[in-house]
Amino acid sequence: MPTPHRSARTSRISRRTLVTATAAGLVTAVASPSRAAGGTRARFHTVGRVKKGDDGTVRYSWPGVYFEGRFRGTGVGVVLDDSDNDYDVQVDGTTVATLVTPGRTVSWIDGLADGGHGVRVVKRTESPWAAGRFGGFVAAAGGAILTGPRARSRQIEFIGDSYTAGYGNVSDTQDCSGNGGVNRNSNADLAFGALTARKLDADYQINAFSGRGMVRNYNGGDPGTDFRTYYDRALLNVEGDVWRKPESWRPQVVVVGLGINDFSTPLNPGERWTTVDDLVAAYESAYHGFLDKLRARYGPKAFVVVAAARLWNTTAFAEATLRIVEERGRRGDGRVSHWYYDDPGLDHLGCDWHPSLNDHRIISGLLDDHLAGLPLRW
Fold this sequence. Notes:
By secondary structure, this protein is an alpha/beta fold. It contains nine helices and 18 strands.
């Protein structure tokens, strides 16, 4: 990360909240998010899965949720209520601060040239156990919050597990126990999906949950639940919660990457599946049901990319996903494609052998190539 070149002033907040501050000063003061949100209602843009409050704030829990705004003046405040997640703050396309578990605060970016600016706040980390809250942007004295930016015409939804979430991707070592742990070393905004979406100037959702599979979680953990248990939620930590899809969310492409956790570890005694063949059959059946759900939600014109990565221990993942795509074609759905990615340049130097930043750039490039081969008209 860049080294701060201007001093940061903090008030009633731990110094570790400030991880990075470049191109501007950062001052943090405690304020009521609901009160600060007054006058900023609908003045930011997001396509992330959020729950709107009557006070203008929004709650959320999926990784990579982002908020974009515009302002005039020499500074802007970011209103947050979140003691679990880390955020990057970007002004005019440059990351100027990283907020580590900011708590209930207004974080100020100041010292900017007086004029019009764009601001973007993105949730770097996962928090399936807790929801964050965003209260909007507030302008520095003499400035103003402007109408938020327009939605982009291109939209992509990414569905997956830790690979899609960017788990441990900014670490320079596979053992993250001594360099801040997984959360301090994860950044969904630098995962392959976000990289590809930005190159295409597309709005995107990252609906990813580490350790979850289509029917089986990592090493058989938390039996009776899987990714599908949570997919329909806006708030992952609220059982029975249902995300209400806005009419404006109509992704032309949906990339599904579920299966690493289903197949990367051997079956344990007592699991529901006696053999790998049993697991494969359950996986394929559930996958077809999940694709049916996506078709019902997004219509027949959306392209669905069924993704598979190379696993060290088995080819079952790649083979099952290929059969699924072939079967969809036989059923008359020609807008489901198979994307298998592997590359000799992948080093898996992220936390716990996950893809590194280098790997996410490579995977993003491979996805770019795959999408370029689809007859997209967007």
